[in-house]
Design goal:
about 425 residues, globular, 3 domains, mainly alpha, 434 Repressor (Amino-terminal Domain)
Length: about 425
C-alpha cells in the first residue's frame, strides 16, 4: 500500500513541482517537507490538509497519515477532539476559496498570499465600509501600475475577506458589501483578462454582475456590464457578442438620467466593436457624437477614479487608427499620452500608430514599428490587451504580404503574452 511520502512525491511529479517550489507555495520549511516526503517525519493533519489544497488533491493525503489506516475505528476521534478554533477557521477559509473557484495556483508562487490567507482566517475583525472603499482604490491603483500577477494575489485575499464578512453582516451592511464584492470581482476579471485567462475572467464578470444586481445599484450594475463588454474586445469574445452585451446593458439602463457615465462607457465600447467589424464610417460618426457628450465630472460613479479623462481620446485613437485616418489618430494619441496613462493605454496608442501605418499600405514599416514597441516590454508587461492590439496590426496585413520578415517577427512576439 502506498505511503504518505510516496503519494506526495507522485503528486509533486504529476504537477511538475520540485521540493523547494512546493515549500514556497505551502509555505513551509523545505527540510521539513523533504523529511515528510520520505516518510521520515509524521505530518500533522493540518499540514496534510495544506498540502492537499496546494496540490489541488483533496482527500488524497490525509487518509494515508500514519495511524490513519484505522480511520474507521478510534483514531479519528482523538484527532477531531484536538481540533482548534484556528483549524476550523482555516478549513472554512479553504472551503470558501474553493466555492469562489480559486485554486492554489491563483495565489501565485511566492507563498505571500497564502500567508495573508492564513492571517486572514485568524483575524475575525471586520473592516468598516471606509476601509473597504480604500481597499478598492488600492486594487485599482495596483491594476494600473503593477504586473498583473502581482496585482492579482492580494485581490484574491480581499475577495475572500469580503465574502467571510458577508456571512455575518447585518441587513444594513449587506448591500454595501455586495457593492464591494461587485467592484473587486470586476477588477479581478480585468486582471485575469490581462493574463489571458479568458474563461476565469468571464466567470468573475458573472460574479460581479450577480453581486451588483443584488446591491440594487443601477449605475454599478451598468458599470460591471460595461467592463465585461470592454474586456471582450481583447480576444475574449467576438465583436458581435460584445455589441450584444452593450445592447443588453443599455436596455437595463432604460431612460434613467442618473447613469450618464455608464452610458458613456458603454458607448465607447460600442464604437470600438464597430471598428473591429470594419464598420468604420458608423464608428467614426458615433465617436464624433460621443466626443461632444463627455460627462462633466468623470470622478462621479460607484468607483472613484475608475473613469479617467484619457478614455475618450483612447476610443478616438482606436477608431481612427482602424480606419486609417492618420492625422486624427495622431491627435488622439498625443492627447492620451499627455495624461501619463495606465501603461497599457500608453503602449496601445503607440501600437495604434503602427496599425494606422499598416492599414494605409506601409506593411513593413508598421510591422517593424509594432515589433519595436513590444520588444521594449518585459514578458510580464505584455498583457493580453497589448498583444491583442499587436494582433490587430497583423490582421491589417494583406494576405499576400504576411510572410514578410517583419510580419513573421510580429506574429512570433504577439504569441508571448504575460501568464500568471
Amino acid at each position: 500500500m502506498a505511503t504518505f511520502g510516496a503519494t506526495l512525491r507522485g503528486l509533486m511529479a504529476d504537477r511538475g513541482l520540485g521540493l523547494r517550489e512546493l515549500a514556497r507555495k505551502v509555505p513551509c520549511d523545505p527540510g521539513h517537507l523533504s523529511r515528510v516526503s520520505h516518510d521520515q517525519t509524521r505530518p500533522s493533519v493540518k499540514f496534510a490538509e495544506a498540502l492537499e489544497w496546494t496540490l489541488e488533491a483533496p482527500g488524497e493525503l490525509r487518509p494515508l497519515l500514519p495511524g490513519k489506516r484505522a480511520a474507521s475505528r478510534a483514531t479519528l476521534e482523538p484527532e477531531a477532539a484536538q481540533e482548534t478554533d484556528e483549524d476550523v477557521r482555516r478549513r472554512e477559509a479553504l472551503q470558501l476559496l474553493a466555492a469562489l473557484g480559486v485554486g492554489a495556483g491563483a495565489l501565485g508562487s511566492t507563498g505571500e498570499s497564502v500567508r495573508q490567507l492564513l492571517a486572514l482566517t485568524l483575524d475575525s475583525e471586520p473592516r468598516d465600509l471606509d476601509e473597504w472603499h480604500l481597499t478598492i482604490s488600492d486594487h485599482l491603483h495596483a491594476l494600473r501600475t503593477r504586473p498583473p500577477e502581482r496585482a492579482r494575489d492580494g485581490l484574491v485575499v480581499d475577495l475572500l475577506a469580503v465574502q467571510r464578512q458577508l456571512q455575518t453582516a447585518d441587513v444594513r451592511q449587506v448591500t454595501e458589501l455586495q457593492r464591494v464584492t461587485a467592484a473587486l470581482a470586476m477588477l479581478h476579471a480585468n486582471i485575469l483578462t490581462r493574463l489571458g485567462d479568458h474563461g476565469a475572467a468571464i466567470h468573475w464578470s458573472r460574479t460581479a454582475k450577480a453581486a451588483a444586481d443584488a446591491s440594487g445599484d443601477l449605475e454599478l450594475r451598468l458599470l460591471v456590464r460595461a467592463e465585461e463588454a470592454g474586456l471582450g474586445l481583447y480576444g475574449q469574445r467576438g465583436p458581435e457578442a460584445v455589441l450584444q452585451l452593450v445592447r443588453k446593458a443599455q436596455y437595463i439602463a432604460g431612460g434613467s438620467a442618473s447613469v450618464a457615465l455608464a452610458r458613456f462607457d458603454l458607448a465607447q465600447t460600442q464604437v470600438k466593436a464597430l471598428s473591429l467589424l470594419g464598420r468604420h464610417e458608423e464608428a467614426k460618426q458615433r465617436v464624433r457624437r460621443l466626443n461632444i457628450s463627455v460627462p462633466d465630472d468623470l470622478r462621479d460613479g460607484p468607483i472613484p477614479a475608475y473613469w479617467t479623462g484619457d478614455q475618450m481620446h483612447f476610443a478616438e485613437s482606436w477608431v481612427y487608427a482602424h480606419a486609417g485616418e492618420e492625422s486624427r489618430a495622431d491627435d488622439a494619441r498625443e492627447r492620451v499620452l499627455s495624461y501619463g496613462p495606465d501603461y497599457v493605454y500608453g503602449v496601445n496608442v503607440r501600437l495604434h500608430e503602427a496599425l494606422c501605418v499598416t492599414v494605409n499600405g506601409g506593411v513593413e514599416q508598421g510591422a517593424r514599428q509594432a515589433v519595436e514597441i513590444l520588444s521594449e516590454l518585459s514578458v510580464s508587461q505584455r498583457v493580453q490587451m497589448i498583444t491583442e492590439t499587436g494582433k490587430a496590426v497583423l490582421r491589417a496585413v494583406p494576405p499576400g504580404q504576411r510572410e514578410r520578415p517583419a510580419v513573421r517577427e510580429l506574429r512570433a512576439i504577439t504569441g508571448r503574452t504575460a501568464l500568471g
